[in-house]
Amino acid sequence: MPAESESNAAVCPACGGELATWRWVPASEPALATVRFELRRCARCRSAVTIGDVADDLHETGAYRPGAPRLHRAVTPLLQAFDRRRLTMLGVAPPARLLDIGAGRGRFVAAARTAGYDAFGIEPSTRGVQAAAAIGAPVRQTTIEQAQIPDASLDAATLWHVLEHLDGSDAGVEQPASWLRPGGRLLVGVPNLASFQARIGAERWYHLDVPRHRVHFTPAGLHELLHRHGFEVLRTYHVLLEHNPFGMWQSLLSRVTVHPSYLYNVLKRNAPLRSPDLVLTALGLPLAPLAALAELIAGALRHGGTIAVLARKQAGRLG
Ligand SMILES: [Zn+2]
Fold this sequence. Notes:
By secondary structure, the protein is of the alpha/beta class. It has helices at 2-7, 72-90, 107-114, 126-134, 169-179, 196-201, 219-228, 244-253, 262-267, 276-284, 288-300; strands at residues 19-26, 36-42, 48-50, 97-101, 118-123, 139-141, 154-160, 180-191, 215-216, 231-237, 306-313. The protein contains 11 helices and 11 strands. The chain binds zinc ion.
């Protein structure tokens, strides 16, 4: 029943609760800012769902277009540090068999292999798979629904900012539940709709990314989804340097700029450099430490901008 109901968004994909119209929000792409999408919110777990279809090429255009972003070389060491942190959160020692689901360009798979893990990835986009091959990371081109992975063959799996892009949240968790051995670990990273920065940013919250993000989870909703598929939640991280301080700062600035998420879009070559927003963003840079401090407090109060949930597949239960 859930899979069928999800497609018309009658029930919450996280907990199965009732959905009701919540608000209409603009598309995150600057070029589509006049298009608005309906969000429906769950009365039980307070997660939300984006109503309306995504254009087929929306994961290949705009902020997701091919080509290197500005300053990408400068941030490479930072991204590598984030990858090592993600491995630490998993709490599984090498040479564990590790699958990165939605592996993108294979950067995390490569980092895990360097650290001694028997790691591989799956990824639906041709561009991602080709980029992964270029750095020697084994990433198979397939969707989560169609991947051919033997049952109980994995020690660990990661779903890092992937689940929110799927219309079928159940498949996103059900599949890894069958691929993991009993006791295997699943690490799920998603934006947190119950965060302080989601409230501050409102319809321009940096991590809302409508309509690419189909489901907007709260910790309660994600926990419920994991429990339903035979996982025990071990830990929920709210202090995450990878996405949270920037999300807070960018969401604050988006309250005054013309373009939403201006700096992010400039770095992605997706907003004009010649804009009053450049001045506003420059003026906002000195506020970054304050935004980071605010986010650190939010995380300590368990309202971080994104969360990472570590779960263990329970023994004796099938996905
Ligand atoms: Zn719900």
